[in-house]
Amino acid sequence: FIRNVSVLMSVKNYKQGGSLEDEAVYLNHDLAMLRIIETFSESAPQIVLMLTITLQQGQLDLITAS
């Protein structure tokens, strides 16, 4: 819902004579933030799984150094 409101506000600003360059910078920053969130959401479950297994075993394997 918030993304839809953001798009509507962008269209409104453009129609009111807002700068296309400013809008491009804003959208570029927005996209970068979404990529960071996407990357974290993909790797976080794997990290949680590895930590859970390690804590349940109570020891580290030789493969993981020590």
TrEMBL record:
Subcellular location: Membrane
Broad class of the protein's primary localization: membrane
A cellular-component GO term for this protein: plasma membrane
Signal peptide: none
Highest taxon, organism lineage: Eukaryota
Membrane topology designation: Multi-pass membrane protein
Keyword flag Transmembrane helix: yes
Alphabetized UniProt keyword annotations: Membrane, Transmembrane, Transmembrane helix
Record carries keyword Membrane: yes
InterPro entries assigned to the protein according to its UniProt record, in alphabetical order: XK-rel (IPR018629)
Family: Belongs to the XK family.
Protein name: XK-related protein
Organism: Nothobranchius kadleci (African annual killifish)
Gene: Nfu_g_1_010128
